[in-house]
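As a warm-up, study this chain.
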Amino acid sequence: MTTLGTGVLRIRHWLRDHPLALDAALALAVLVAMIIGSFVHPRPGEVPSFGTRPPEVSGVLLMVAGAVALIWRRRSPMAVLAVTAGLTVVELVKSDPPAPVVMATVIALCTVAARTDRPTTWRVGLLTVAVLTAAAMCFGAAPWYSQENFGILAWTGMACAAGDAVRSRRAFVDAIRERAERAERTRDEEARRRVAEERLRIARDLHDVVAHHIALVNVQAGVAAHVMDKRPDQAKEALAHVREASRSALDELRATVGLLRQSGDPEAPTEPAPGLAVLDELVETVRRAGLPVEVACTDRRPPLPAAVDLAAYRVIQEALTNVRKHAGPGARAEVSVVRVGNTAEVTVIDNGSGGGGGHGDGGGHGLLGMRERVTALGGTLTAGPRYGGGFRVHAILPVEARTAESG
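Now compare it with the structure written out below.
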């Protein structure tokens, strides 16, 4: 059965790739049917007899010409219909009883209906039906109301209906296939968009973790190198801060990478853990790095949604890192988190003279990452120099975060 099915499938594929061969086979089958039908001798009021009267030579030639014309029915359906209809009219006018050349016209008319639109099918079909039926009624020896004449009317009409049905089904199948392909393209585009968004989110998280902690490590290492010879106790303290900052960086990196490894776990968290609950630890770390930070206000009740909480923490972390790196010596920073209606406002200001957070991390990714993170939740972020010196970072975050999935 497998071999038979494979053979049939190969034949179908071959015929699909060679439509002219299929049309030639159909033409041969129609020719055989017409020749067999030409041996039938209709007798009015009696049962038709078979084999009592052989077809005329002219009728055989017309049948062969009509069958040969069907080979090009796909390439020129209108021309083939005109040729076969003309041959049928000649046979209806010349012979009595006529040979069934009309079979070729029925096939050609069905092809026209299947490969053109419905208005064209109606116009061409009605014209063909009218011409052939009128020729049969006017030039035949049988009465105009004979069943042979109405048979021509019925077969040509059914050819139009069958061709129109084939065309409608083909259009329906094409529409379904096009809809499926469009849905597949949409799924692929959505998958690519989600992948790009996830890569951007991971890049922001890694930047926030690495930039903050490495900046602290760099500062403390510089202090240790500066006082190593004269103040070994301060150098030891600075190295302890380096170790603590590096350990915190490793912990956050481990948490971020762990999210990637738990992609198949439905219970796995979708964001790293830090939030405003550990803001005091962040501020204390920055203070130990030598930047005085004052927390003006931290309104944390009721708790913010996880995504908003993380975004607020990352904005403060990145802003303080930029202040430490770029605000210059003697700079001080101030942090505030205030709930205003359905929004949470995060503000970080400094009085430095070195450009503050305006220079980001040197490559421009600091402010860009903050702005992307806030915008993804439906909030806004503004950052720029303050009047009188210093820099200000201000983020407005909606309490009900608009995530990328719901947006």
